[in-house]
Amino acid sequence: MAQALRADPRSELDGVSVSIRDLSLSYGAVEVLGDLNLDVNDGEFLVLLGASGCGKSTLLNCIAGLQPATEGQIFISGKNVTWAEPSERGIGMVFQSYALYPQMTVEGNLSFGLKNARVPKGEIARRIARAASTLQLEPLLKRKPAALSGGQRQRVAIGRALVRDVDVFLFDEPLSNLDAKLRAELRVELKRLHQSLGNTMIYVTHDQIEAMTLADRIAIMRGGKIQQLATPDDIYRRPANLYVAGFIGSPPMNLLPGRLEGNIFHGPLVADVTGYDFTTRPRGAEAVLGIRPEHVRTGEAAAALPIQAQALVEVVEPMGADTLVWTRLGDTPFRVRLDGEDRVRAGQVLSIGFDPASLSLFDAATETRI
Amino acid sequence: MSDAAYPAAAAAPPRSAAPRGRLLDGPAGLAPTRRLSGKRIMIYGGLLIFSAYYLLPLWVMVMTSLKGMPEIRMGNIFAPPVEITFEPWVKAWSSACTGLNCDGLSRGFWNSVAIVIPATILSIAVAAVNGYALVNWRFKGSEVFFTILIFGAFIPYQVMIYPIVIILREIGLMGSVWGLVLVHVVFGMPIITLLFRNYFSSLPPELFKAARVDGAGFWGIFLRVLVPMSLPIFTVAVILQVTGIWNDFLFGVIYTRPESYPMTVQLNNIVNSVQGVREYNVNMAATLLTGLVPLTIYFLSGKLFVRGIAAGAVKG
């Protein structure tokens, strides 16, 4: 049966919009992407998330055809496009720096690709009108990019991808050049756009808020490899390894080194982790216990929980809606996130507690989840 | 959780709420600047002396070119002409003798025009495409290619004079205006290519990527995206090439014949021809006429240059 599937790759690609097979890219001896496999489903919003230099933009450029791959294949809408020109791949792309053609009007920017593809004039006008109404660009059509604000420019750039009538949109950190308020607005606008169009979108960002809010699935990348590919909820609740655990969440997860003996964790605190949902049995005894600052309870609420400890408050950072408290468990710094209404002072001893179900345990040697 | 409020937090009213008067007499607001300090007098005085030093030769040239020969013989080279005459200018343009023929600088002027225009257009066209390809369409060995091209800028001209004579003779362009055009195109290539390469590599690479996604090819991206936003660098290239080629003397005197001499060579022949009296006024007028073209270019393109930069400063 598996043999038969191999014979006709198209059936294997059913419901898959973009498929990346064993993709590698190296510059000389430097490997930027290594043996990467990724399937993006039809209509899915996939976010490639990672710190700078992790290869996420390079991967996007490979999908777009702007960066030839050293090894492997790329399929878009069931077609092998590994050697195809960017314009033949059925993609639209939006860049961080907008990349609008400065000497053309908004209309000229939108129509440039269509004119190159020799789309008939009436069709060009129809598509521009549709994109302009979707993105509220009608009053701006005759303007040059210099006369637009940052948010307007990025909407034009999105429009330029929209008029191409393609199945796959690629976004390369499209909101990173905007100020915080505009970024939040355009983020919602993008999500709305995805819901109404239903296209496949692949979105590169280093901003975990963007990733968490927009994505159907997130691929966290590091060193040219995908660390975890899962829904935002899964990535937040069940990080696959220490890197993901430390990367996602602001402030990040508390990571306490220690030893696991049976179901008892000995570290800066002693914790009975009965009730934790083990994925595999730990091989070694060295382990790392992870707990998110927002999953730590204090005071009376802590007293009812299976794991409890006393922590000395060092610094308090009130942020309005919540308050971040830096404490110390033994020698290990430990962050606790409290409700903004709670009052804590430096020097005070805080009783804390948490539930084994909200923990993450990692093997200290392999750094993977156990 | 301790709900104990911090004491005395809301006791005192905010301090800076009400408008308040000036506290004491003393410095307030913008510091005054003295208009004419000793330092400024030194600066302006120095500038005036230096500009006089540089302008004086020009003054002498213009004044001499407007005088008749009898007045020149009286000396007083700094004095303005008693009787203004444009005769020397007319003579320099149309009837000064260079030994063989007596039709003045006009022949050299038109030769120079016939050399400068094609040489400028060709060299800039080729160098712009070179620079574009070197930045955006890297090929195997493109860096080596670029290094070799730049190295060409450092080889002394003298080394290449004779080989070029042979090449031009073999391809049958020796002595013609087109031969000189070819020489100027080749010699302008390194520096103008460098100019365009640097400019194109300063443009955001995303622009090039976006155009590729939009289906534009090698020429489409160059002509419809990059060239329209490159007015400033084209202006700089035109200034460099027009003035450089117009002022060239060495190649002009080597690779052309008397009937196709450029204006600079013609000027030299007029000034240096020893037949009877030296007509200083005609020489001065001829020199000014020859220098007028680069001067005009500087004035005209200076304005265009500023406008070009303003037009190119758009961050798309």
What does this structure look like?
The complex is a heterodimer of chains A (370) and B (316). By secondary structure, chain A is an alpha+beta fold. Chain A has 2 domains: 12-242, P-loop containing nucleotide triphosphate hydrolases (Rossmann fold), CATH 3.40.50; 254-363, Nucleic acid-binding proteins (OB fold (Dihydrolipoamide Acetyltransferase, E2P), Beta Barrel). In chain A, 27% of the residues lie in helices and 34% in strands. Chain A has 11 helices and 20 strands. Chain A has helices at 2-7, 9-12, 56-64, 106-116, 121-134, 150-162, 180-197, 208-214, 232-237, 242-247, 299-303, and strands at 16-27, 30-41, 45-49, 71-76, 79-80, 91-94, 168-172, 200-205, 217-222, 225-230, 254-261, 264-266, 270-272, 286-291, 297-298, 307-318, 322-329, 332-339, 349-354, 360-363. In chain A, the strands form 4 sheets. In chain A, strands 6-7-8-3-9-10 form a 6-stranded mixed sheet, with helices on both faces. In chain A, helix 4 runs parallel beside helix 6. Chain A is globular, with a radius of gyration of 24 Å. The two termini of chain A are 33 Å apart. Chain B has 316 residues and is mainly α. Chain B has 2 domains: 39-85, no CATH class; 106-312, MetI-like fold (Orthogonal Bundle), CATH 1.10.3720. Chain B is 65% helix and 0% strand. Chain B has 13 helices and no strands. In chain B, helix 4 runs parallel beside helix 7 (177-202) and helix 4 (106-136) crosses helix 10 (231-247). The longest helix of chain B has 33 residues, at 280-312. Chains A and B meet through strand 6, helix 4 and helix 6 of A and helix 8 and helix 9 of B.
